[in-house]
Structures are given as structure tokens and as C-alpha cells.
Write a structure and sequence with these properties.
The chain is an alpha+beta fold. The chain has helices spanning about 1-50, 65-75, 85, 100-110, 165-180, 185-210, 210-235, 245-255, 260-280, and strands at about 60-65, 90-95, 120-125, 140-150, 150-165. Strands 1-2-5-4-3 form a 5-stranded mixed β-sheet. Strand 4 (about 140-150) and strand 5 (about 150-165) form a beta hairpin. The protein is elongated. Bound molecules: ligand 0O2. The site of ligand 0O2 has 13 residues, from helix 2 and helix 5.
């Protein structure tokens, strides 16, 4: 009984040590992912604040699971002590773009940081050189320093840049590969290649109407901003302006809400701003 519980205690202590080691090992990678995603999201925010079209639609990050790291190490025959140097995507960041044309812009954004806060080690263009599976994406492998309690630590990280369509395909294929333990039936592989071609065609089709879509998105953003400003002004005027003035302002707003042009909305905003000035709001 004592022996058995000692044994159990030893085993659980060993498990705990291993768990703690993984946690410690992955902690700087979590930091790298958090920093890199934050930096890219700030760039997105800056584009938005400047009222410019942002080539990045979404920025995601993840740290590879220990089981997945060990599986990759086993497949590539990487000894445990070489995992850090040889597995490049323990820290992974994914930038998803709306259009293929946005990808070179994101690549330039990252290249501009080369030797600033990161070092580019390698670029892999799986868009030009589509993988036999049908996988398309642009990969940039970087060396990234994180500041830890023990000092500066250089880590490898992988930035994947792809369109929404490429991502849709890759996520679906990844789930299937996981389910079939990497051994997809041939028929499913063929259908996936077919789906990858469809995603490629979708990207090309979307490119043909890219300007219209970009214009519509910009238009909607300006319109939303104007409507928000008008509502703020109306709210501020409610307690000071006359009932007739507020009814008139509301009537104009309702008339413009759905179909009003930007110029008409700008005119209403200017009139309300003038009224607010008169009333000292
Ligand atoms: P996870 O779960 O996303 O982390 P390799 O073993 O050759 O595939 P390698 O040499 O590390 O991988 O580099 P590669 O091929 O440039 O890119 C590795 C990552 O790209 C993969 O990580 C995937 O995220 C993605 N990727 C590469 N090929 C494919 C593919 O055919 N389908 C999908 N869905 N993703 C792919 P992991 O560790 O394989 O997976």
C-alpha cells in the first residue's frame, strides 16, 4: 500500500515536472506570439485611424501544443535538445488578407522590420509554388528576441500570410488531416485539390472587383462615422434646442439614414455643429 502510493506519488511528481518544464519552455514563445500579434494589430489600428485601407484583415497567433511539437520532432527525427533550433513554427502568427494583392503589402511591412525588431531567416512562397496538397500561403521564418527574467532570448517564429480563401481551405484540410492522422484517402485528397483550385479561382474573381469592394468598404466606414457624429450632436442638443429644431433634425436624419449621400450627411452634420456652437454645447 505504502509502496504503491509512493510509486503513484513519484509518477505524478514526474508528470508534474514534465508539465512545468513544458510550461517553462513555451513561456517565451507565448510572449513572442503575444508581442508579434500586438505589433501587427497596432499597424492595423493605425491604418484604420488614418482612414486607409488595411492590407491585413485578421491577425491570429498560437503556440504549438507540446503533443504537436513532439509529433513533428518524431516525424522529422529531431532530437529533443534540437527542438528549439529546428522546429520553426512553435510560435506561429497568421495574417489573413482579403485579397491576393494585399499579400505583397504585408510582406513589405514585415521586411521593413528586418534587423529592427526581428530578423528574417527565410521566405517560402507556397503561393507561386503551391504544395501538391493544394496548400497556398506565404511563410516568413524569423528570429525574434524576447526579454525574459533571465535576459534576452532569441526564438524562431513563423509568420503565415494568406487570403481568406486560402485560409478557409487550409483550416478545413488541416482538420481532415488531423482526423485521418495524416493519411487522407486518395479520393478525399483529389477533392481537396479540386477545392484548392476553387479557392484559387475565388481569389482571382475577387481581385477583379477589388476596387469596387474597397470603395464600398471605405464608403460604409465614412458613412458610419458621419452617422455616429450626427447622433452625438443630436444627443447633445436635445436638452438645449427647441422641440421644433430637434424634430426637424430628426426628420432630416431619418430621410438620409438609408439612402442619403455622403455630401448630404456632411451638410446635416455641419448644420448641427453650427447649432451646437450657437447653443454653446
Ligand atoms: P500546424 O498544426 O499548423 O502547426 P512540413 O512538415 O514540411 O509540413 P515544415 O517543414 O515545418 O513543415 O514547413 P512548412 O511546410 O513550410 O510549413 C509548416 C506549416 O505550414 C504547417 O505546420 C502548417 O501550418 C502549414 N502547412 C504546410 N503545408 C500544409 C498543407 O499541406 N496543409 C495545411 N493545411 N497546412 C500546411 P504544421 O506543423 O504541419 O501544422
Amino acid at each position: 500500500m505504502t509502496l504503491l502510493s509512493n510509486q503513484k506519488e513519484k509518477e505524478s511528481a514526474k508528470e508534474e515536472v514534465e508539465l512545468v518544464n513544458w510550461k517553462e519552455f513555451l513561456y517565451p514563445y507565448e510572449q513572442a506570439v503575444a508581442e508579434l500579434t500586438l505589433k501587427l494589430r497596432y499597424i492595423m489600428e493605425e491604418y484604420k485611424r488614418l482612414g486607409l485601407y488595411c492590407p491585413m484583415d485578421t491577425v491570429l497567433g498560437r503556440v504549438k501544443q507540446p503533443s504537436s511539437i513532439l509529433e513533428k520532432a518524431r516525424k522529422k527525427q529531431i532530437p529533443e535538445e534540437k527542438i528549439e533550433e529546428e522546429i520553426e513554427d512553435i510560435a506561429g502568427v497568421r495574417v489573413i488578407c482579403q485579397f491576393v494583392e494585399d499579400i505583397p503589402k504585408v510582406i513589405s511591412l514585415i521586411r521593413r522590420r528586418n534587423h529592427q525588431d526581428l530578423i528574417i531567416l527565410e521566405e517560402r512562397d507556397y503561393i507561386k509554388n503551391t504544395k501538391p496538397s493544394g496548400y497556398r500561403s506565404y511563410h516568413i521564418i524569423i528570429r525574434y528576441p524576447v526579454q525574459t527574467v533571465a535576459g534576452s532570448k532569441d526564438l524562431l517564429a513563423e509568420i503565415q500570410i494568406r487570403t481568406l480563401a486560402m485560409n478557409f481551405w487550409a483550416v478545413a484540410e488541416h482538420s481532415l488531416k488531423y482526423k485521418y492522422h495524416g493519411q487522407l484517402p486518395q479520393e478525399l485528397q483529389d477533392r481537396l485539390v479540386h477545392c484548392a483550385e476553387a479557392a484559387f479561382n475565388l481569389d482571382n474573381e475577387m481581385s477583379t472587383i477589388r476596387n469596387e469592394i474597397m470603395y464600398a468598404q471605405r464608403y460604409n466606414k465614412i458613412k458610419d462615422g458621419l452617422l455616429a457624429d450626427i447622433l452625438d450632436l443630436i444627443q447633445g442638443l436635445y436638452s438645449v434646442a427647441s422641440l421644433e429644431e430637434m424634430e426637424e433634425a430628426n426628420k432630416r436624419l431619418v430621410g438620409l439614414w438609408e439612402t442619403g449621400s455622403l455630401d448630404e450627411l456632411k451638410e446635416l452634420k455641419a448644420d448641427l455643429a453650427q447649432m451646437a456652437q450657437v447653443y454653446g454645447v
